[in-house]
Structure formats: C-alpha cells, structure tokens
Amino acid sequence: MPETLSEKLSTQGGDGPSQRATADLRHSLSTTSLLATLVLKEVHDLVLTLRFTVGTVIAVILAVLAAYIGSLDYNARLDSYQTKVKLNREGLSRVKVYSFLNPTLVRPPEPLSILNHGLEGRVGTDFEAEVDVENTEAHGENRGNEYLAVFSEVDLTVIVAVILGLLALLFTFDAVCGEREAGTLKLMATYSLARWQVLLGKFWGAWVTLMLPTALACIASLLVMGFTAHVQFGAQEVFRIGLILIFYALFLSLMLLVGLVISSFVQRSSIALVFATFVWFFFVTIVPNLATMLPDFVGKRAGVYETARAGLRQTDREQEAAVRAVKDPRDGFSFHYAISNNWGSLTEFECNFGDRTFYEQLRQFFGQTIPLSLRFAARRADLWREYIRYRYRQAALARGLSFFSPTAVFKNTLAYASGTSEADYTHFIDLATQYRRTFLSYLQRKDAFNSRRWFTPDPPDQDWSWTVIMLGKTAEEFEASGAKPDDVANRMAHEPAFFSKFEQFEKGHMSDALLRLPLGDLPAFNYGRLPTGAAVVKAAPEISYLLVLNLVLFLVAFVRFVHYDVR
Please, are residues 209 and 43 in contact by the beta-carbon 8 Å criterion? Predict the structure, then answer.
C-alpha cells in the first residue's frame, strides 16, 4: 500500500533537504491556518455588529425599491419606444411623395439602466433623417414616467457607492487603531503571522463580510427586475451584469483599503471615524459636484453657443438669398397651378391636380433647391458640431476632475458597463448619421430629387389638372380666352356644383393605396448597442484607476502598519 504524504514526512529524518521541506510545509500550513482563523474572526465580529445589520437592511430595502421603481420606469420607456417605432412605420406606409419621406430613428431603452441609470433619460432618443436638416443630436427626451424620474436616479449603483461605500469605511476605520485600543493588536503581534498577513487577514475578513449585503442587494435587484421589468437578457447583458458585479467588488475593496489607511495613520478610533466620515462625504458629494460645476464655471460655453447661433443665422440668410435667386413656380396663383397643396419645409411639398407645365416647373425648381438645401444643411451641422465638440471637451474635463474621487470614477465605470454612458449615446448618433447618408443615397438611386414623385403622386401619363377636372378646359385654353385665374377661382367658390364634381373625381381616382410610395426597398435602420469590448476600452482609464488605487492603498496601509506602534 502506498504511503500517505504525512507518513512520508514522518519517516524522513536527518538534516537533509527533505526535513527542511517538511518544516517549511508545516510552517506554511500553520500560517495559512492562522490567517484563515483571523479572516473568520473578522467575519464573525463584523457580522455581529449593529453597523452590519443596519447597513444590510438599508441596502437591501433600497435595492428592492430602486429596482422596482426603475423597472416601472423602464417599462414606460419601452412602451414609448415601441409606440414611436409603430407610429413611424405606419407614417412611412402612408407617404405619397418622396419629399415627406423622413424616417425617424428611435434609440431603444437600455435594460441595464435599471441597475445604473447613467445618462438614460437625460439625452434624446429620436433622430430624423431629413434632407433640409442634417441633425447632429437626438431629441425627444424620454424619461418614461416623469413622476418617477427623480426616484429612478436612485439605482443599485448609487446604493453601492453611497450606502455600502460608507459601510466599507465603517468596517475598517478602526481595524488597526481600534484593535490597539482594545489591546488585541499587541496580542496578535505575538503570533507567528507577519504583519502583512495580519493586515491581509483583516482586509479579507472585512471584504468577505461586505460582499454579503452586496450579494443580497444584487440578487434582490435582479429578482425584482425579472418579475417586474419587461426585459429579456441575452449573452451580452449577462456578461455585462458580471462586469458590474466585478466593479462593485473592486470599488468596495478600495473603500475598505481607504479605511485601513486611515486606521493605520491614527492612534484613536474616534479620530479615525471623523476622518472616514469626511473622506466619504468628500468622495460622494464634494468632488462629483465640483467636477460637474467647474467646467461650466471656468469655460466659455455661452460664448461658444452664441458664436454657433450667429453662424447659423448667417447661414440661414445666405440660404434664403440663394433660394430667392431660383424662381419658385408656387409664387402667385395661376391656371398653371395645383389646387391641393401641402407645405412642409423648403423642399417638403406635396400637391395634387396641377397641370404638366406646373409640374415641370416644380421639378426644375426642386432639382436646383434640393442640392442647395443639402449643402446649407451640412454647413449648419458643421457649425453646431463645433458647439457639441466644446461640450464634449467640457465633459472630458469633468471626467478628468472626477479622478479625485473613487466614487465618481466608479459611477463613470458603471455607466460604460451598463450601456448608459456618453459613449453609448454618441454611438447611436454615429449610427443615425450613417443611416442618413444611406437614406440620401437611396433617394439618389431612385432619382427622387429630379422626379415628379418628389412632390406629387399624380400619374405622369394622365392630365389631372384642376381646370380640366372642374371646368373641362386646360390652362392653355383659359389663357387663350383671356380669363383671369382669380375670377375663375372666385366663381368656383360660390358654385357648390364645381366642388361636388371634384369630390366625385377624388373618390374614384385618389385611392390612398394606389398613390402611396412603394417602399419595400427602403433601407432599414438596425441599431446595435456599443459592443462590450468597445465599452471596456472606453472605460479603460477608470478601470485602471480602480485597480492601481487598490494596489497603492494596500501598499500604503502595509508600509504604515509595519511601522505602527502596537503598544
């Protein structure tokens, strides 16, 4: 029968390498056992404290409430999104002319915004692909239930950052100085554990204890989401939830180390408590607010905004002058006119019952004004992008200032992980802008800018001019007779028989189904969220900061604890 490891160790003698290895192994096992005992002692002591009980109860209750309210708000935003998509689809199906074909692109709500609200609800959700306007931002801010908007700001991330972050400091603010005051730190020094092992044991004990309320809060939030929110988690969402939990653990370990550093620099726990409370308040309140306020305070946003607005006004004047140079056939009523007109913007125009001469004039008019409109729309967009870039620079400055607070950095990291960051909004704008280019290419392939179908659904092979339908004469025949258009229009207005004849014609020839645009080949907008890998890359500075700060704080606590007077 083969010998066991213990039997081999017991039968080896002498002063050779085997005996030394045996002694080292026994010492390692003894050290590990003592370290495990210290960790269990810390867990036991902390779990029995009032701060653990109160902190756990508050965290779990708030997590349940936040998840429930956030789920209701998400459901409202999801319903709004689905309604917008449906209305847009129905609206496109009723379009009769290309000039009124303006697809609206809608950004869907982010399911993980329930855990971390981020910018969700603060930025726009709707982006219109237009000819006259090159949009640079989304509009239609969608906060779901407005009465829940304030409450939905309290999410699981805020609870971890504020409540559990404070609990972490309360766990370790007296880990060293409190043990010294109680006399147990001097007793620990008599054990065979090194000081770094004592420090590590206290840290791991506090971390394991803190993970209990964190796990309970996370599980409670996910359960509430599963039963309340209309969400379906895919592989990407599950992976991101895993990242969120990892970042929670990383942040809380950092806050525990902050408490250890404070505790190792002071001799009395009462002083350590004052310092820990101030640090928590500084990280949670002062730095995040200053990071938000300072960029606006020291910047010149108002001046940049006014410069952009002045440029837009100048561009509008130049466009108006350029358009005036093109003869508009719609100026002034004549026999060569369309009796049914629907004005939109400069190039959005729908008309019916005009003669061929009028339609040819319109075709030439829009053939000249649409390129003008596109060019000036691009100029306006470039001017406004200057202002947007300035705002992004302000946001970048605020992001840099937030590095003075681990709490602010933690919240920024969670915004990237949950898909509610500025980068996710910018990703939507980039996709929508790209779709507009695709949409314009589609119109060009259809030769829509130079066709009658840009402004009228009237068949090109039939004369549906109002003079022929209502009076039985062409515009040329009326002009040859010397009749005046206004006199003819006034006569028709006082004779109901004319409009009765017109209504009968409309019923027989103006079927919506026949006149609608065939849009089976219209490019679809496919929104894809920012990939998880790209989000992690965007958050790399914050993630690196949390990792490095954990290491630095542990080293500082260790160096200080090595020289700490345990008497």
Answer: yes
Phi (first) and psi of residue 482, to 5 degrees? 85, 5
CB-based contacts of 377-383 (< 8 A; 24+ apart in sequence)? 377/130, 377/131, 377/132, 377/133, 377/134, 378/134, 379/315, 380/133, 380/134, 380/312, 380/315, 380/316, 381/134, 381/135, 381/136, 383/308, 383/311, 383/312, 383/315
State the Cα–Cα distance between residues 349 and 369, nearest whole angstrom. Answer: 12
Strand, coil or helix: 354: strand
Residue 245 has pLDDT above 90, yes or no: yes
Q: Is residue 450 part of a domain?
A: no
Strands (E), 280-358: 338-343, 349-354
Q: Are 559 and 441 in contact (CB under 8 A)?
A: no
Q: Tell me, what's the pLDDT at 112?
A: 94
Length of the chain: 567
**Helices 301-324 and 356-401 sit at what angle, rounded to 10 degrees?**
170
- Return d(Cα 169, Cα 261) in angstroms, integer: 10
Q: Helix, strand, coil proportions of the chain in percent (round to 5)? A: 70, 5, 25
| Assigned domain for 95 exists | yes
Asked if the model's pLDDT at residue 429 lies above 80, the reply is yes
> Domain for residue 212, yes or no?
yes
Phi, psi dihedrals of residue 104, rounded to the nearest 5°: -105, 125
Average pLDDT, the chain: 85
User: How wide is the angle at C-alpha 557 spanned by C-alphas 555 and 560, nearest 5°?
Assistant: 105
Residue 266: CB atoms within 10 Å:
19
Would you state the pLDDT for residue 510?
65
Parent domain of 282: 38-303+384-438+525-562
**Is 47 buried (19+), middle (13-18) or exposed (0-12) by CB count in 10 A?**
middle
Q: What band does 188 get if pLDDT is binned at 50, 70 and 90?
A: low
In the chain the first and final C-alpha atoms are separated, in Å, by 54
pLDDT at position 4:
38
Report residue 342's pLDDT band, with 50, 70 and 90 as the boundaries. Answer: confident
Instruction: Check residue 406 and give its pLDDT.
Output: 94
pLDDT digits (tens, 9 = 90+) for 371-424: 999 999 999 999 999 999 999 998 899 999 999 999 999 999 999 999 999 999
Q: State if pTM tops 0.70.
A: yes
User: Cα(369)–Cα(346) distance, rounded to whole angstroms?
Assistant: 8
How many domains does one find in the chain? 1
Give long-range contacts, CB 8 A cutoff, 24+ apart: 141-148. Answer: 142/77, 142/80, 142/81, 142/109, 143/73, 143/77, 144/72, 144/73, 144/74, 144/75, 144/76, 144/77, 144/80, 144/109, 145/72, 145/73, 145/76, 148/69, 148/72, 148/73, 148/76
Does a structural domain hold residue 547? yes
Please write the tens of the pLDDT for every residue from 143-157: 544 444 444 478 999
